[in-house]
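stage 2 :: seqdesign
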């Protein structure tokens, strides 16, 4: 794989609240990420394929959430939380939804969507 031919991107999530997060990549990846964000703003969602430095490709899902209640029901993005669902004390269930927190995958009902 060539640095100039592939979209190399690292996304570093916060470990816990108030900690920094980073998005870093080569120019090709960052331009495509910008395109994916523009597509999500126009269509609600978009999906792109990127590569970390170990060349193990991954899909990046970008979504717009228009509903505050839905946004508040999503699990927190901190890496400190383990398991399929985030149950730790950082999540605030503002609407007493016994099913919350939800994975952000609920924003992408058609996960079979091909990269645009």
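stage 2 :: out
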């Amino acid at each position: 794989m060539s640095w100039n031919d592939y979209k190399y991107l690292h996304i570093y999530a916060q470990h816990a609240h108030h900690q920094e997060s980073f998005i870093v990549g080569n120019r090709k990846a960052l331009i495509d990420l910008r395109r994916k964000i523009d597509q999500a703003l126009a269509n609600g969602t978009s999906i792109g394929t990127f590569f970390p430095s170990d060349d193990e490709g991954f899909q990046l899902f970008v979504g717009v959430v228009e509903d505050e209640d839905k946004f508040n029901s999503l699990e927190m993005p901190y890496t400190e939380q383990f398991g399929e669902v985030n149950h730790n004390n950082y999540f605030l269930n503002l609407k007493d939804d016994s099913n919350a927190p939800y994975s952000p995958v609920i924003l992408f009902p058609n996960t079979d969507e091909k990269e645009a």
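stage 3 :: structure notes
- The chain has a mean pLDDT of 84.
- The chain has one domain: 9-107.
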